[in-house]
Each structure stands twice: as C-alpha cells, then as structure tokens.
C-alpha cells in the first residue's frame, strides 16, 4: 500500500514540474472595469419567485389535516405517473400520520377538457398518490376517489374570462386524515 501511495505522489510531482510556468500574472481589473461589468437585475425576472409554489400545502379544516399536492408540479400534463422523486416525497409527507389512521386521497382537475377525461385523470392521479402512500405506510386505511372538476377551490373563470391561477389551484390531489 505504501509503495502505491509513494508512486502516486512521485507521479503527481513529476506532472506538476512538467507544467510550464506562467509567463506573466493575470492583470488585476480596475475598480472602473469591475463596475462596468456589473449589470442590474432585470425587474421582469424578480417576480418568478413569487409565482413558484411548493409541491404541497398543509392546512387544517375542522378536525382534519389536509395535505394538498399541486398536480402541476407533481404530474406531467394529462398524465398520472409520479416522477422518480414523487414516492419519497409522499412518504415524507405521511410519516406523521397517526398509526392505523383512516386517510382519504382525492384527485381533482380544473374544468378544461371533457368530464369523462377529467374523471379518469383525477382517479388515476389519486390512485398514483395512494400507491405511494401504501408503499410507505401499509398500516393506513385508504379510500381513494377522483372528483374531476366537481370540487373547485377557486373559480375556473372570473367574469366570463378564463382564470388560469384558479384553474391551477383546482388541479390537485388531497390527502386528508383526522389529526
């Protein structure tokens, strides 16, 4: 082992010695050059943080704990497959649910698309989340249901106009349990 380490050190030293010496040190920029290289932040990019949402939001509704998962972040458009990191995140979200608790998983969509497609998609997404919960917490008693666009939390339209922010909040999967 010692012989291998000594050989590696000798090789590294020979490589360093073989490097050419720097002809001249790099010039140091003046204060004026540094000041000229700094650009102000474009104010149009600042609101991006304000528009980002976490994957989940936790609320209490009466005696129920509700974990709302944003479908826009969790799922690809019109799909119900969880991303690779999805099951681990869902397992983390249900780790504090009491042992043997009754948990309901409800899928929701916005009003865009056919009622039949929204019914199927909301059920498929609820089942995907429930599958991750079952894998992480087999002790929990799950009920799973797709609600499509029947239980919006925000209007899908305002004043006869499309309401994209409201529709985004309606696309969700909710995990509910007594807490």
From TrEMBL:
Q: Which GO terms describe its cellular component?
A: membrane
Q: Output this protein's name.
A: OmpA family protein
Q: In its keyword annotation, does this UniProt entry include Signal?
A: yes
Tell me yes or no: is Membrane among this UniProt entry's keywords: yes
Span of the secretion signal?
Answer: 1-23
Keywords, alphabetical:
Membrane, Signal
Domain OmpA-like residue range list: 62-179
What residue spans carry the Basic and acidic residues bias annotation? 154-179
Region (Disordered) residue ranges read: 147-179
Its lineage reads:
Bacteria, Bacillati, Actinomycetota, Actinomycetes, Propionibacteriales
Q: The organism sits in which domain of life?
A: Bacteria
Q: Which organism is it from?
A: Propioniciclava flava
